[in-house]
Design brief:
Blueprint (H helix, E strand, L loop, with lengths): L8 E5 L3 H7 L4 H20 L6 E8 L7 H24 L2 E6 L7 H14 L5 E9 L1 H14 L6 H7 L10 E4 L18 E4 L9 H13 L8
Parallel strand pairs: 1-2, 1-5, 2-4, 3-4, 5-6
Helix pairs in contact: 1-2, 2-3, 3-4
Bound molecules: 3-methylbut-3-enyl trihydrogen diphosphate (2 copies) and magnesium ion.
One 3-methylbut-3-enyl trihydrogen diphosphate (IPE) binds next to strand 2.
Length: 229
């Protein structure tokens, strides 16, 4: 009998905030605000889910710097406020906060806030919430390869994987993209080698635990062969 699939690591491309706002005649940033609320709801739900150990959320890509400065600035402020306001949630639900991506381009105040949140939550283990911040998978793989070249290390799948920052959170089991587009936009390319993919038209601010649960149910029915028969 086939063992049931375990939804250990869920990764989400949280897309559609801007369209959510446009549909309501609101400014794009309002969509990001509502998106942050969805982050809280889904994270809290995941922390109480028996199977989910890791929730990786794509919050800002290496390509998102191309957006108008006003929107980028807003996203940075929103992240800072989110981390400040959510400390209580991290503690109450015993959620460990982690990040992937190159945060050295963020303001020192924001880098500080990120470091403090990591430090304050590092003992928790009910769920690890990983925010992908200034994250790009190609950038990450290139950085890992560069380090290995500089150190004269030989490159194998195993050795390269160890050097890829985000691989410490393990392979992705379920990769969800909200907002209707069917592409990966440079997210977790290495870790998603055998992820089960789910694309939903739901815009991120409207994504809720019921829909996540339906996706997990569907995931349970899929046959993961990993190249076998
Ligand atoms: C995703 O929503 C959030 C970020 C990329 C920060 P978008 O802002 O991309 O929303 P759409 O795709 O324009 O609707
Ligand atoms: C992907 O969404 C990045 C995040 C959700 C942070 P985008 O809206 O930036 O992706 P594209 O431009 O549609 O590929
Ligand atoms: Mg988008």
């Amino acid at each position: 009998m086939q063992m049931s699939n375990i939804a250990r690591h869920i990764a989400i491309i949280m897309d559609g905030n801007g369209r959510w706002a446009n549909e309501r005649g609101l400014k794009r940033v309002k969509g990001h605000e509502r998106g942050a609320e969805a982050v809280r709801t889904i994270t809290t739900y995941a922390s109480n889910h028996p199977e989910i150990d890791v929730l990786t959320l794509y919050a800002f890509s290496t390509e998102n710097w191309k957006r108008p400065k006003m929107e980028v600035d807003f996203l940075m402020r929103l992240l800072n406020n989110y981390l400040k306001n959510e400390m209580e949630t991290y503690i109450r639900h015993q959620i460990r906060f982690e990040t992937i991506g190159d945060i050295s381009r963020f303001s020192s105040a924001l880098q500080d806030r990120i470091a403090k949140t990591k430090e304050a939550t590092k003992r928790f283990s009910k769920l690890t919430q990983v925010l992908a911040l200034n994250y790009g998978s190609q950038d990450e793989i290139a950085r890992a390869a560069r380090t290995m070249c500089d150190r004269g290390e030989s490159i194998t799948v195993e050795s390269l994987e160890k050097r890829i920052e985000s691989s410490k959170f393990g392979p992705v089991d379920i990769l969800i993209r909200t907002g209707g587009e069917q592409r990966l936009s440079n997210f977790l390319l290495w870790q998603s080698a055998y992820a089960e993919l789910f694309f939903t038209p739901t815009l991120w601010p409207d994504f809720n635990p019921d829909e996540l649960e339906r996706i997990i149910e569907e995931f349970k029915k899929r046959q993961r062969r990993f190249g076998g028969i």
